[in-house]
Amino acid sequence: MEATRERAWETLTSYTKSTALLRHALAVEASTRSYAHRFGEDEELWGITALLHDFDYEIHPTLDKHPQDGAPILREEGYPEQVIEAVLSHAEHLGLPRDTSLKKTLFACDELSGFVHACGLVRPTGLEGLEPKSVKKKLKQPSFAAGVHRDEVYAGAELIGVELDEHIANVVEALQPIAKELGLPASADA
Ligand SMILES: [Fe+2]
Ligand SMILES: [Fe+2]
Predict the structure, then answer these.
(1) pLDDT band, residue 186 (cuts 50/70/90)
(2) For residue 149, how far is its CA from the centre of ligand 2 (angstroms)?
């Protein structure tokens, strides 16, 4: 089986119906892909991995199943082991080593993409003009997007060796072109 974005989207949407989860997958995909581009890595492969990282969350919503019980499904569907291993490594509770650039980047983009998305949702202009400074301020408000693990946001930036401000700016920029798909106001020039 050739792992294509189209195929990954099919896999994702056959297991995931929730709009919120699909938007999360798209947001993490866009961020991870942008880093693949930045790092000169395989954008398609990194994008597919990000798109699929929570593909089984709807059928396995608990940590005794997600994402470990999703892995055999991906294997069955013929995804490369590199993708499957990276998907498994995003889960803190599995304690797997993040020993590749893809694993590190997926981890770094997972929580922050969700957080930046949440920041965009409460602004009339969405992601337009969203500065790292205001994202960092919101990170310090525990009640805002309370489900986002702050420690993982900070650890992720450190893991990929990118300053938090720059990491935030990169993610904001990566999400802007898909603002509409994320349910955010599209920027005027998009
Ligand atoms: Fe997950
Ligand atoms: Fe996720």
Answers:
(1) confident
(2) 11
Question: Can you give the three-state secondary structure of 96-137, one letter per residue?
Answer: CCCCCHHHHHHHHHHHHHHHHHHHHHCCCCCCCCCCHHHHHH
CA of 132 to the centre of ligand 1 (A): 24
Whether the upstream peptide bond of residue 185 has omega within 30° of 0, thus cis, is: no
Centre of ligand 1 to C-alpha 181, Å, is 20
For residue 28, report the distance from its CA to the centre of ligand 2, in Å. Answer: 7
Taking the CA of 50 as reference, the closest ligand is 2
pLDDT at 189 over 60: no
Spatial distance between the Cα atoms of 87 and 74, rounded to a whole number of angstroms: 10
User: pTM of whole model > 0.70?
Assistant: yes
Kindly report the length of the chain. 190
Q: Would you state the structure tokens that stand for residue 12, as one six-digit string?
A: 């994702």
